[in-house]
C-alpha cells in the first residue's frame, strides 16, 4: 500500500497540473511535521512551486501551518526568479547564435514550461540548444570557448555543455542519443532532417522573442523518449512525467495521431508509452483521451513504475541504495552499475529492444571512458 506522503504528493501534483481543487480529506488532521515532510519531498521532486499552488488553495481548515506556508511561498518566488533569469538567457543565447550564423532550436526546458497553467511555476533546469545547420555545432562551440565560458567535463557524444552567466547550457549536434543503436539513431536523424530541410520548426514566444521549437508531434515524442532515456539509465522524477502530459494536453489539436503512433512503433516504445500513460491516468487522474494511442491492458508493472519514480525522485538521484555507495572510485562505479542494472532489468518487458542490451553497452563505454580520463 502506498504511504500517505506519496498519496498526498500525487494529489497536489494532479490538482496543480489539472487546475482543480485537491481532495481536502487527504489533508485533514495533518500535523506540522507531516507538512514539512511533504514540503521537503516536493523540493527533491523539483515540484515545489506547483505544490504550493495546490496546497495554498486548500480550504482554510486543512491548509498547512503558517511556517510551512511561508516556506512554500518563498520557494515559489525563487522558482519564479529562476525562470525569469533562464528565459532571459534563452533569448540572449538565441540572439548571439543567430548573430554568428548558428541559429538554434530550443529543446525541452523553457519550451515545455509554456505548456503549464502557470509557466513560471515549473522548476527550471538548463538550456538545451540544438544547432541544426551543418557546421554550426562546432562553430558555436568554438565561439563559446572564445567567450571564456566554463566547460563541462561531461562526456557525451551528442552534446557539449558549458556554463554561461551561472546557467548550464548544452549545445546539441543531435537532439538525443540511443546508446549506439544505429537503427534508432538513423530513424531520428531522418525525422529531424525532414524538419530542417523543410524549415518546418514550430515557434514560441519567450519574453516576446520568437524561439524555434521542434514541430509538436515530433517534439512530444522526443520529450517522451528523453524521459524514457533517463528512466532506463537511473530514473526520472514526476516533473519529467508532467512535462510530457502538459505538452500532450496543450498541443492536443496539433498532434498528427497517425504519425505519433508510427513513431512509437518505429522506435519500439509503444508499450512503454502505454504504461507511462496508464500511470498518469491511475495516479494523476489525467484523462485517457489526451493520449494519441490506445492505452492497452493495464500492466502489473505500472504500480512498480510509480514506486520507482516516487522513491528515486529527480532523475533517480534519491534511490536509497544509490545514496549508500562505497567511496572508492572503482567500487563506487561497480556499485552504481550493479544497482542500476538490477533496477532496470525489472522493467525490461516494457521496452526489451532498449533495455536488454543496455547493461552491456554501459559496461563497455563506462570502462573505456574511465580509462581514458584517468
Q: How is this structure best described in words?
A:
The protein has helices at residues 4-18, 32-44, 48-55, 66-99, 109-113, 136-146, 182-197, 216-233, 238-250, 257-266, 270-284, 301-312, 329-345, 352-355, 358-373; strands at 104-107, 127-131, 150-151, 159-164, 167-172, 202-206, 209-213. It is of the alpha+beta class and 374 residues long. The strands form 2 sheets. Strands 1-2-5-4-3 form a 5-stranded mixed beta sheet. A hairpin with a 7-residue loop joins strand 3 and strand 4. Helix 11 crosses helix 12.
Mean pLDDT: 92
Which range best describes the helical content: under 10%, 10-25%, 25-40%, 40-55%, 55-70% or over 70%? 55-70%
Structural class, judged by helices and strands?
alpha+beta
Rg value: 21 Å
Amino acid at each position: 500500500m502506498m504511504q500517505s506522503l506519496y498519496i498526498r504528493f500525487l494529489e497536489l501534483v494532479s490538482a496543480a497540473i489539472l487546475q482543480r481543487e485537491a481532495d481536502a480529506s487527504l489533508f485533514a488532521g495533518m500535523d506540522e511535521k507531516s507538512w514539512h515532510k511533504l514540503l521537503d519531498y516536493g523540493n527533491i521532486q523539483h515540484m515545489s512551486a506547483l505544490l504550493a499552488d495546490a496546497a495554498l488553495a486548500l480550504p482554510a481548515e486543512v491548509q498547512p501551518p503558517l511556517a510551512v506556508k511561508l516556506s512554500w511561498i518563498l520557494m515559489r518566488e525563487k522558482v519564479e526568479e529562476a525562470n525569469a533569469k533562464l528565459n532571459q538567457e534563452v533569448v540572449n543565447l538565441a540572439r548571439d547564435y543567430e548573430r554568428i550564423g548558428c541559429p538554434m532550436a530550443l529543446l525541452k526546458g523553457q519550451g515545455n514550461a509554456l505548456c503549464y497553467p502557470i509557466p513560471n511555476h515549473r522548476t527550471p533546469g538548463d538550456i538545451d540548444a540544438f544547432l541544426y545547420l551543418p557546421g554550426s555545432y562546432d562553430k558555436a562551440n568554438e565561439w563559446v570557448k572564445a567567450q571564456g565560458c566554463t566547460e563541462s567535463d561531461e562526456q557525451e557524444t551528442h552534446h557539449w555543455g558549458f556554463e554561461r552567466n551561472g546557467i548550464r547550457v548544452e549545445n546539441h549536434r543531435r537532439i538525443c542519443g540511443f546508446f549506439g543503436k544505429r537503427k534508432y539513431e538513423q530513424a531520428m536523424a531522418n525525422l529531424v532532417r525532414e524538419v530542417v530541410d523543410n524549415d518546418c520548426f514550430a515557434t514560441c514566444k519567450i519574453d516576446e522573442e520568437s524561439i524555434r521549437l521542434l514541430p509538436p508531434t515530433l517534439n512530444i515524442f522526443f520529450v517522451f523518449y528523453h524521459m524514457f532515456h533517463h528512466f532506463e539509465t537511473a530514473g526520472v522524477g514526476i516533473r519529467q512525467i508532467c512535462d510530457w502530459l502538459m505538452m500532450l494536453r496543450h498541443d492536443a489539436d496539433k498532434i498528427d495521431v497517425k504519425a505519433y503512433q508510427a513513431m512509437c512503433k518505429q522506435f519500439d516504445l509503444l508499450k512503454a508509452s502505454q504504461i507511462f500513460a496508464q500511470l498518469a491516468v491511475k495516479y494523476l487522474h489525467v484523462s485517457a483521451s489526451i493520449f494519441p494511442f490506445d492505452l492497452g491492458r493495464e500492466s502489473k508493472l505500472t504500480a512498480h513504475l510509480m514506486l520507482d519514480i516516487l522513491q528515486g525522485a529527480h532523475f533517480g538521484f534519491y534511490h536509497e541504495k544509490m545514496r549508500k555507495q562505497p567511496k572508492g572510485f572503482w567500487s563506487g562505479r561497480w556499485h552504481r552499475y550493479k544497482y542500476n542494472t538490477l533496477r532496470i532489468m525489472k522493467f525490461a518487458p516494457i521496452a526489451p529492444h532498449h533495455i536488454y542490451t543496455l547493461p552491456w553497452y554501459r559496461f563497455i563505454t563506462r570502462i573505456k571512458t574511465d580509462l581514458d580520463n584517468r
